[in-house]
Amino acid sequence: MENSHSITTDTVGGLTPIDLCVMGVYLASMIGMGLVIARRQKSTHDFFLAGRSLPAWAVGLSIFASLLSTITYLGMPGEMFRTGVSFLTRQLPVPLVLIVVMFVWIPFFMRLKLTSAYEYLEFRFNYTTRCLAAIFCLLLLFGWVSVVVLTASRALVEIANLNVPWFFGTNHPESPFRDADMHLVIISVGMFSVLYTTLGGIRAVIWTDVIQFFVLLAGALFTMAYIAWDTHSGIGEWISYSQQYKHEAVEWFDWDVRNRSTVFSISIGMFFWFTCTHGSNQVALQRYFSVKTIAAARKSYLFSAVASLAIGVVLAGVGVSLMFYMQDHDLPARKVIHTYSQQETTTLSDTEKISLNDAQDNVFPQFISLHMPPFLRGLVVAALFAAAMSTIDSGANSTSTILIIDFLRPLTPSIMKSDGELRYARLLTATMGVTVVLYTLGLYHVSKGTDIITLSQKGFNCFLGPLGATFVLGMFFPRVTSRSLIPAFLIGEVIGIGSSFSEEFLAIPFSTHLVVPASWITTIVLALLFSVILNTRATENQRSWTWIEVMRNRPAPS
Fold first, then answer.
1. Closest CA to 141 of 384, 514, 397
2. How many C-beta atoms lie closer than 10 Å to residue 388's C-beta?
3. Long-range contacts made by residues 415-418, C-beta under 8 angstroms, separation at least 24?
4. DSSP sequence for 181-248
5. Does residue 70 contact residue 448 with C-beta atoms inside 8 Å?
6. pLDDT at 166
7. How far is residue 359's CA from residue 323's CA, in Å, rounded to a whole number?
8. Tens-place pLDDT, residues 266-290
9. Cα–Cα distance, 266 to 258 (Å, whole number)
10. Which helix (H) or strand (E) holds 355?
11. Partners of 251 in the beta sheet?
């Protein structure tokens, strides 16, 4: 194929005035929506749950947009370079997840009529258990949002070609305060996203997420459309070329837990990730709490599942289209990928692995910066903002919900009046934004060379398994009490963190897809073992909060 669009790697990208106008319109609309909705906020019931009056389809798109983030938006195209279309096996457990979420989690939690998911753990166990789980959820949220901010910032720096003021640092490699462009972008993305959340609460979060869903979908579709037009190709040619590309070998099953990419490990990992997220993570559960009925909550999850499947296929398409495009178009990442991707992963040095991971994750941003025409570039950059902001706003709102409902309200009831709570909620949301920015700045300097998918596992998924296991134990195992649960929970968290960083701590690789299942299983097994050793049994009141009793004795909301 003759290439009339080829450029040198010295070509400088950046955003044109047209791109900046597109981004400006998008960002201004988000802030405007936050300001309009802020006028309707009268209490924390509005701020956290929107009066349980939101439509199911909007909640469903918000669930999906919140959980998508830039980690998936940028990570999946890069993952397609590593493992090819076999990475789509992450969708295999979706039917089973649908059954668990729609017929186990949703009817149970909707009957409880909660604001924070961790209120349940006090009813079933005690306040100590509630606080412990809430603390680890906060750690998860801080890690999650920080990784999202970092991922978006990496991409935006790659695209924008910034020239920032001296007080943000310098880009000179020998400076102790370098990477000025990253510092500026991290601060901007984090603070801007939290602004409209602070104003409008969960209602602003959900309605902006709806807009962001369509923006990020449009960004991905326009990327593929432009590549198809520019290369006179289509999906058939892309897939054919992808099959010739040397990917990591993906086996169906392998007992070796060091093998990162097997169909089994990806499928089991995604099953546990989805079920734990929808059964213990405040971000997802708070969405269900914002609708009135079980039927509406189920519809919201169906919308979320369909959107997830559709975007997964679209982002896989972005990955294979970029793979095809790169063969005849120069990108800074092209030389590194073609050099190292032809070698067995086990033969690469740590430095070479880092270079290859960075290059694969940077193909999409570099394509946007160097090859995409104005206006479309602004649209796709807005999509990157959308993917980041939909996660950041959710994390900020959920964090303030946990802090108010699980800590401040029980401990300081005298100052937590209706109007006072609302002020505290907004203050905590803003504070969370500042904290995330500072955390992300530190994370950036210690995580260079880590691919996006792996970074997400190390940054926050290490906390998820024991949280999900705690709710399962409370719902289905009456013998388990706080005495048997808490030590099992803490050991499970140690396993989650240890397996995430096993290569750093012990020089032993461990599949990132197995981190959540390993820590979940550890927590379940140890809690049941401790309950037998300690001969623990729940009280009659605690047993009334198990799944069977709640489903039998508590009417469904109408």
1. 397
2. 30
3. 418/42, 418/43, 418/44
4. HHHHHHHHHHHHHHHHHHHHHHHHHHHHHHHHHHHHHHHHHHHHHHHHHHHT--HHHHHHHHHHS-PP
5. no
6. 46
7. 12
8. 788 889 988 998 888 888 898 898 8
9. 13
10. helix 350-370
11. 262
Global pTM reads: 0.83
Q: How far apart are CA 457 and CA 332, in angstroms?
A: 27
**What's the CA gap between 74 and 248, in Å, rounded?**
19
Which residues on neighbouring strands pair with residue 432, listed in sequence order?
none
> Cα separation of 293 and 53, whole Å?
10
Low-confidence ranges of the chain (pLDDT < 50): 1-12, 166-168, 176-177
Q: How many CB atoms lie within 10 A of CB 79?
A: 26
Q: Look-up: residue for tokens 């997420």?
A: 209
Contact 465, 527 (CB under 8 A): no
What's the pLDDT at 431? 83
pLDDT digits (tens, 9 = 90+) for 303-319: 998 888 888 889 888 98
What's the pLDDT at 7?
38
Of 462, 499, 476, nearest to 551 by C-alpha is 476
Q: How far apart are CA 161 and CA 168, in angstroms?
A: 15
What's the pLDDT at 526?
A: 97
Sign of torsion, CA 471 475 480 482? Answer: positive
Dist CA 188 CA 166 (whole Å): 16
Assigned CATH class of 17-455: mainly alpha
